[in-house]
Amino acid sequence: MSESKVEKGELITQVKQQIAVANAQEMLSKMTEKCFKKCINKPGRSLDGTEQRCITQCMDRFMDTWNLVSRAYGNRLQREQTKAMQNLDAIN
Questions:
Q1: Domains defined along the chain, listed by start
Q2: What pLDDT, in 10s, does the model give residues 75-86?
Q3: What are the residue boundaries of the Tim10-like domain, all occurrences included (predicted)?
Q4: Triad 76, 21, 11: Cα angle to 5°
Q5: What are the backbone dihedrals phi and psi of residue 20, each rounded to the nearest 5 degrees, phi first?
Q6: 5, 39, 43, 67: most buried by Cβ count inside 10 Å?
Q7: Cα separation of 33 and 3, whole Å?
């Protein structure tokens, strides 16, 4: 493989890693915001048992939903890419 192809591959890997980090940061930010609004009525020095349970359940549901949506989106992209490749093959 030529040096430029190796560099291109490394660059693509770095970009994918940066996107993954940005997605994780976005998920954490949104999860924190939504679960705080839902579970914390009166912010104080500590969380009571009800708030702790609510936060835990909210975070679990949020992450499950995020993962479900991410998988569905990935599957959709895969199907569209496959369809586009089939269309190209049909044209050629």
A1: 3-40+47-91 (1.10.287)
A2: 998 999 888 888
A3: 14-74
A4: 85
A5: -65, -40
A6: 39
A7: 45
**Tokens at residue 51, please?**
């708030």
Residue 1: pLDDT band with limits 50, 70, 90: low
Look up residue 64 and give its amino acid.
D
What length is written for the chain?
92
**Per-residue confidence at 2, pLDDT binned at 50, 70, 90?**
low
Q: What predicted TM-score, i.e. pTM, was given to this entire model?
A: 0.65
Rounded Cα distance between 65 and 27, Å, is 11
Instruction: Calculate what percentage of the chain has a pLDDT beyond 70.
Output: 97
CB-CB contact of 38 with 60 (8 Å): no
Which token pair is 29?
């930010």
Compute the distance between CA of residue 70 and CA of residue 82 in angstroms, rounded to an integer: 18
Is 66:27 a contact under the CB 8 Å cutoff?
A: yes
Cβ neighbours around 35 below 10 Å, total: 20
